[in-house]
Known about the structure:
The protein is mostly helical and 469 residues long. It has one domain (13-224, 247-456). 66% of the residues lie in helices and 0% in strands. Mean pLDDT is 92; it is low at 1-8.
Amino acid sequence: xxxxxxxxxxxxxxxxxxxxxxxxxxxxxxxxxxxxxxxxxxxxxxxxxxxxxxxxxxxxxxxxxxxxxxxxxxxxxxxxxxxxxxxxxxxxxxxxxxxxxxxxxxxxxxxxxxxxxxxxxxxxxxxxxxxxxxxxxxxxxxxxxxxxxxxxxxxxxxxxxxxxxxxxxxxxxxxxxxxxxxxxxxxxxxxxxxxxxxxxxxxxxxxxxxxxxxxxxxxxxxxxxxxxxxxxxxxxxxxxxxxxxxxxxxxxxxxxxxxxxxxxxxxxxxxxxxxxxxxxxxxxxxxxxxxxxxxxxxxxxxxxxxxxxxxxxxxxxxxxxxxxxxxxxxxxxxxxxxxxxxxxxxxxxxxxxxxxxxxxxxxxxxxxxxxxxxxxxxxxxxxxxxxxxxxxxxxxxxxxxxxxxxxxxxxxxxxxxxxxxxxxxxxxxxxxxxxxxxxxxxxxxxxxxxxxxxxxxxxxxxxxxxxxx
Length: 469
């Protein structure tokens, strides 16, 4: 599997593509028309037309795969970053401190973007509700792009800290909708979860470098704590309530380590694969591997949503067995794919065995079955993209997704802080809404807006303007 994109050391194109897919579909899910599309086009627990959250609805949709796929890719990136630095001689405590700093930056990012979203602002002049978010986007560029003006060290620090100070002043002084004021507890929940587990996941990895079994042993402990957390009066229940600074760190968020930790194992497999001698695989049935991996994911989404649980279990077992048989007979040259299949099939079946626990699989409030099922799917999705991107080099799929996946923070806020405000100021967005009130047109509107966000992110990536924490 040689890197045909260039002659530089190999990069895990599949991992970038998986992250890019998660970000692109996250944007699409947020941008598609509300109320008028089928229920499977939204989160399962907030069905149309009213989109009122109901914890009594069980099942998942394709939208519910977005967050765990992103978490998994985040976990897989940890060994590729911290592991390489550790091999170069950087101390564990130094890497742990870097991880804490990264977590704090992500927490600030989560708080700031929430206070910069247009719907949060209470300016009397309507145009300010869109100019200010675009200004916030510029401040984020100054915060997270390393030395964008190529200044000396102290000049770079002055620009960066000046941006942080300006962002803080903006949050404290600007008016908010409904007369609200600045609150630390108002933050983007997705980014706050990421800031939490970016730290704990990194620390667990650093404590278990070169000891994957010790890291995997943490998984049943976390599972047991959260299972016992449903028992009134248990110490585990009280533990899950502890949080000295709930706006910054919450123990319940650590449940997502059940995706991050397996992701770090996948990341070590990727690291090992990248170190192998370059060679072109002679596996002629790779297309069938990709097809079966995709089929397992699609079947689980469809049958878990429709609640055909027995059919889903049987189809998962049959398809997984077929995929495993093909990979086992493919020779030693595809050991990496075989590992991904083993990890994915095991976690997926584990999650399906837990499906009845807590009433059924559900993203909100998150269930253990959801974490294991979607983590297993993430392994299979990485396998799918490895075939598409690293084996067949299908550039028209891999290139756009990679460009987005390499710059996820830009992509995450591109719609709310750049594209939508621009379209509102130019009066294009209301026009677009007025002509997309039918289901198909409403979906196509989401596709168009997603393409604009991906285009903006790709430009940042092309110019090497990476937002880094």
